[in-house]
From TrEMBL:
SUPFAM superfamilies: ATPase domain of HSP90 chaperone/DNA topoisomerase II/histidine kinase (SSF55874). InterPro entries: HATPase_C_sf, NatK-like_C. This is GHKL domain-containing protein. Pfam families: HATPase_c_5. Keywords: Membrane, Transmembrane, Transmembrane helix. The lineage of its organism: Bacteria, Bacillati, Bacillota, Bacilli, Bacillales. The keyword Membrane applies.
């Protein structure tokens, strides 16, 4: 191999490895900084090229490991490993496909430099196109919360074994750069890929089926909580009516004895709390009955009961009857579940907590407002709130709002307004009734 051929090979390798790096930046939504450039060149790209010249295709596994270590610093989950593995699978298949196509499509190109440029540009465009398609499909299923971690780990294992098979097959070829070897590998990869896609389709089907079952179970559980609140309210009403005569007798006793202090104590300690609880439950049920969406009604009841168990009062209001909200009930429940969970968690830290929830029917949209009191000395910006991994409570509980933002971005007719003042954290969710 002459110097020109070696130089062309080095440039091609550098271009392709750098393209794989860029693809992963795109898939992982990573924002590269100036400080990243030198480490990427010195510790990822150049060592991979040197290892390729020494060990051939297996140098790709150094690139794989180094990319995993590089992107791990900015990732809060292990899904990024699956994205990196997929990018390698796509790169191998497209590299073989472009090698076959370019021989026929650019057969009349006499300049080797021009042929090389056209081939690498085709590789770049096809790789980005397939990566974009993969990202759209994957994002759709992730937003639907269909895949469990176990399924994702299983799929990542299958993808890794596929990648290993691809590179073993390439390495076993006596001359893997020849047209015949590339053509044979492409056929083998295509058949193998079809089998993998069938397995992936089966996993998706089973995951969707399991997801729908879980959603139905959750909806039933939430509705049972609503019935529990209804029964509890009726029971409290029956008890109050049953004790009505006894209450009057006790009041009469204190009045006849002119024991005003005991009368006050009896009223404020025994009668008023029971009356306030009954009134609060009746008001909540009256407002819930204005929502004609059983799945949503059940979720709200579950969250309100959870808040009450933690001593957090909730002021709930529905301005007028709502028959339908233009958002998938599962996604709507996920969004409101995240907002209410965060409001309840934040309220647990306060001496006098209060959560306000309102459903406001506008002319062409539904506005859902959730606000909770916050600590007066809390210094938080809206940008901080939606940063993945942020939480004023520590741990990983801050992931909820970043997931929420991803769901909102996936629905063009849904808008989220966030406000923070000295006394409250306010989330206004506006859902257009006609999707744009």
């Amino acid at each position: 191999m002459d110097i020109d051929s070696i130089l062309a090979l080095l440039i091609s390798l550098l271009f392709q490895f750098f393209t794989i790096f860029l693809i992963n930046i795109f898939l992982l939504n990573y924002k590269i900084s100036k400080q990243d450039i030198v480490p990427v060149i010195l510790f990822i790209l150049l060592p991979t090229i040197l290892l390729f010249l020494a060990f051939g295709p297996f140098a790709a596994f150094y690139l794989l490991i180094s990319l995993i270590m590089f992107f791990k610093r900015k990732s809060n989950s292990h899904i990024f490993i699956l994205h990196i593995l997929i990018s390698f699978i796509l790169a191998v298949i497209i590299d073989h496909l472009v090698s076959i196509i370019s021989v026929h499509l650019f057969a009349q190109v006499s300049s080797e430099s021009l042929f090389f440029i056209l081939r690498e540009l085709m590789f770049l465009l096809l790789l980005f196109a397939t990566a974009y398609l993969y990202k759209r499909i994957f994002t759709y299923f992730i937003h639907k919360n269909i895949f469990s971690n176990r399924v994702l780990y299983l799929f990542a294992s299958i993808v890794f074994l596929t990648l290993l098979f691809f590179y073993l097959n390439i390495a076993m070829m006596p001359d893997y750069h020849s047209y015949e070897a590339i053509q044979l590998n492409l056929w083998i990869f295509s058949i193998y890929l079809v089998l993998i896609l069938v397995i992936a389709a089966a996993l998706v089907y089973l995951s969707i089926k399991h997801y729908n079952i879980r959603a139905k179970e959750k909806e039933q559980e939430n509705f049972l909580n609503y019935l529990q609140l209804l029964e509890q309210t009726n029971e409290d009403t029956r008890k109050f009516k049953h004790d009505y005569i006894n209450i009057l007798a006790s009041l009469r006793y204190y009045i006849e004895k002119e024991d005003m202090q005991s009368l006050k104590n009896y009223f404020y300690d025994s009668i008023l709390p029971t009356q306030q609880k009954e009134i609060a439950n009746n008001m909540m049920l009256d407002e819930l009955n204005k929502l004609k969406i059983d799945g949503l009604k059940g979720l709200l009841t579950t969250k309100f009961i959870h808040a009450r168990e933690n001593g957090i009062p909730i002021h709930f209001e529905v301005t007028e009857e709502i028959l339908h909200i233009q958002l998938d009930i599962i996604e709507l429940n996920r969004v409101l579940g995240i907002l209410l969970d965060n409001a309840i968690e934040a309220s647990k830290q306060l001496d006098k907590p209060l959560i306000r929830v309102a459903f406001i029917k506008l002319e062409q949209s539904i506005m859902i407002v959730i606000s909770n009191k916050i600590q007066e000395d809390l210094q938080v910006s809206i940008q901080d709130v939606f940063r993945k991994g942020f939480s004023t409570k520590g741990g990983k509980r801050g992931l909820g709002l970043s997931i929420l933002k991803e769901i909102i971005n996936a629905n063009n007719h849904v808008i989220l307004h966030t406000k923070i003042d000295t006394q409250a954290f306010i989330q206004e969710l506006e859902i257009q009734q006609e999707a744009k």
